[in-house]
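Ticket 4471: requesting a sanity check on a complex prediction with S-adenosylmethionine. Repro inputs:
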Amino acid sequence: MNAKNTDFGTFAQDVMLGLNSTPKTLPSKYFYDAKGDKLFQQIMALPEYYLTRKEYEVLEGQHEQILAEVLALNTPFNLVELGAGDGMKTKILLRYLTDKKADFTYYPVDFSGSVLEELEESLASEFPALKVNPIQDTYRDSLKRQVWEDGKPNLILFLGANLGNFGVKEAKNIIDHLRVGTKKGDQVLLGFDLKKNPQTILDAYHDSEGVTREFNMNLLDRINRELDADFDRDSFTHWPTYDPVSGECRSYLVSQKPQVVTIGALNQSFEFEAYESIFTEISKKYSLSEIEHLAYLGGFSVKANFLDPEVYFADVLWEKK
Ligand SMILES: C[S@@+](CC[C@H](N)C(=O)[O-])C[C@H]1O[C@@H](n2cnc3c(N)ncnc32)[C@H](O)[C@@H]1O
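Returned structure tokens:
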């Protein structure tokens, strides 16, 4: 696996910065350690978590149209995936490309080393002939470093509503990185969760089995495990909210009482007032016009929007102008 050379010791720094901010916050990328990866796989199978099913439906039903242009190039290309996760939906595309005998190398990029190892293993058994080059890195740094092969056309996948895990300003910044990290003619396929009935959205982040709660709480467990902290998870409540105007679904951990938490690795204690919250995740829902505006900002033209019949989810194909 191609891991970034700089160290990953920023967890402690990010926790320190986040818990010293007002309001307190923790970056959502730290959800994904070995336990968080497993919990996310359980979330994807939940009846309330429509996102995975809907995107699967889009890719399963329309992969031929989605991949028509890259196949028509009839030349070797790079298939880069930002935040690949377990690659469950991507395998629909990989299978079709492999069946069509396309000449490409798959570069799954993910911050989580454990999920990349799992993906590499499953690809080796399901697609033994596939050229795979996993990269452990962040979205932004991988786009800056561009470790995929120079000179070949790129199809960059950014599936699963990953861009939705950023607020508007940060999403624009990621789109800027995509602009810089691509060349004329490169294609980008992005997954967006669309605005819909607010209750449907909220239920996806507050499931009846409590798996999304467990996923959120894993951040506290992870700080306890890795940074020698004493968070009492039972004194925090998982609290997702959805604002239909901004389209932002935000998850919080709310302290149920005044308390002090000590983080040994930081040599610091943090005071919580009763009902003070830690903001842990944003999942922004988009309208098609907002998505089109992002394409315009990044210097991409919209080739096609692929939607499921209920219009819950969009995979949009852009081309660099
Ligand atoms: C919501 S999951 C989606 C996974 C997959 N794309 C899918 O649709 O099922 C997000 C994935 O992106 C990774 N990730 C989150 N933030 C990241 C970042 N800033 N840079 C790189 N990977 C990140 C996580 O480790 C996780 O595997």
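Notes from triage: The CA atoms of residues 28 and 262 lie 21 Å apart. Leaving this open until the requester confirms.
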